[in-house]
Structure formats: structure tokens, C-alpha cells
Amino acid sequence: MSVALYASKKFQGSSDCPKMGIVSVRFQQAAGVVLDRGEVIERTAAFVRSRLHSDSSGHDWWHVERVRGLALLLGRREGADEYITELAALLHDVSDYKFNGGDLDEGSRVSYDLLRDLGESEACARSVAEVVRNVSFTGAGSVSRMRTIEGMVVQDADRLDAMGAIGIARAFAYGAVKGEAMFDPDQAPHLHASEAEYLARDGSTINHFYEKLLLLKDRMNTESGRSFAERRHRVIEAFVHDFVAEWRLEDLPEL
Ligand code: ADP
Ligand code: NI
């Protein structure tokens, strides 16, 4: 099923997000229009696309589209609310701490304000903002604070997109933007014990595989996420193995 199809779908109400028609005073004054859920999704997508389209670090609009599709798929299997899941997937990287000077809360503030401006209820905006605040991986030693099933599927989807062939491409794209070495044999990988230590890391992209990407399969929140992660994990495991073997000339035939 195409991702575009998800976007045009009209969603049913949930307890956190009553059916549209609830319009904030601010938005009514600004536009005098009542948006339905499909329109809120479309405006949110347009807002995110306009902020991310020029990114070349693996956090571009297409990453968001892939996470949106994966999160909806996982969400359906896990019984998550589709509307909150789709909004949170769209907004999850709207202001990443890795690119905004380290502000872990900016993405959730931007998400909350946008949804309120689009006329969404406070409960809905809060649910989405909470997912956006907690989605990022912040080190081997830090524990996920995700509380809702919608947050769990968005986080699993984000992690699945950091694994497999696409995950490999994204890691090197990110490493290039950040000026990281591909690999430095003198620098051993390090499992960071705290969030602060992880955020201050300075290492190679291959080390990032040991410090994060190879740990992800055991960090999945949901059963569906765990099963989707298996194949992608094998892809990155084989890649790192081959990369190191080639570096050491161990891949060559006997001469
Ligand atoms: P998270 O917020 O959990 O890091 P994102 O969806 O924002 O997840 O994307 C992170 C992407 O950037 C992943 O593909 C990840 O592998 C890559 N990345 C993050 N830090 C590094 C790093 N130090 N070196 C290489 N790639 C990195
Ligand atoms: Ni992401």
C-alpha cells in the first residue's frame, strides 16, 4: 500500500483526539476555517517537508515518509491510534537535537504549537509532543521513556529505518555531514553509560554501528517491531563484518 494512500485517509476519533471540529481560538481567528483530520495531516506533512527538504544527513523528508509508512503498518498490528501515530511519525524529526544545538525539547514544542495552531485539542497536541520528545536514542545505557503504544510504534519505525541497507546509507550520510571518519582502527567502540556521555561522543561511523545500530534489534518496543528488525539486523551485521574483513585484507583469496 502506498504511503500517499495513508495520508488521504480520514481517521476515526480516539479518546485523546476527539473527532475534528475542535478548533483553537487562535486558529479560528487566524483563518476562520475548521480543518478535518485529513487536512491536519496534510498541513503537518507540508510543514515538515518545508523544514526538512534540504537535509542531506539521512534525516530528510523521505526518512520521515518511510517512518510514517512503517509506523502505520506497525500501529495497525499493535492496535495503536492511527491519527496520533501518523502525526507523531510526521513530526518526530521536526527539530532534531543533533542539529539544533542540543535542545532536546524544541521538537516537541514545535509539534505542540503547530497542532494547536491547526486547531487540534490540547490532549492531542500533548500526546504527539510527548512522543516527539522521547523518540531519540540517547545511548546504550539510557532507558526508553516511551509510555504510549503510539510512541512505541513510532520509535520502532524510526529504529527500523536506521537498520538494514537504508540504515547503512543513512549512517554514512550522517557521518559525512558531521565530518566523522568512516573508521579509525585506533579508536575502540564505546558503550555509553549515560545520555550525557552519548550526546558528547566523538567517534567513527563504524563505531556508531557498535554503539547504536547493532543494539537496536534488542531495543524494539513491540513484537511486530522485533520481527521486522531481524532481517535488517542481519544486513548490518554482515556489512560490518565485511567492512572490517576488507580493512584487514582478510576477504582476499589465498594468493
Ligand atoms: P535518533 O534520533 O534515534 O538518532 P534518527 O531517526 O534521528 O534517530 O536518525 C538517526 C540517523 O542518523 C540514523 O540513521 C543513525 O544511524 C544516524 N546517526 C546518528 N548518529 C550518528 C553518528 N554519530 N554517526 C553516524 N550516523 C549517525
Ligand atoms: Ni528519525
Overview of the molecule:
The chain has 255 residues and is mainly alpha-helical. The chain has helices at 3-8, 25-31, 37-52, 61-78, 82-91, 106-117, 122-134, 149-160, 164-177, 195-199, 205-211, 223-247. The chain is elongated, with a radius of gyration of 20 Å. The protein binds adenosine-5'-diphosphate and nickel (II) ion. Nickel (II) ion binds at residues 63, 67, 92-93, 158.
Rg from Cα: 20 Å
Largest sheet, strands/sense/barrel: none
What is the SS-derived class? mainly alpha
Which spans of ≥5 residues are poorly predicted at pLDDT below 50? 1-15, 18-29
What ions, cofactors and ligands are bound?
Answer: adenosine-5'-diphosphate, nickel (II) ion
Q: How many DSSP helices? A: 12
Distance between the termini: 50 Å
Q: What is the helix content?
A: 55-70%
Task: Name the beta content range.
Answer: under 5%
Following the backbone from N to C, one meets helices and strands in this order, namely HHHHHHHHHHHH
Shape call: elongated
Brief sketch in words of this structure:
By secondary structure, this protein is mainly α.
Characteristics:
disordered N terminus; binds nickel (II) ion; mainly alpha; 255 residues; binds adenosine-5'-diphosphate
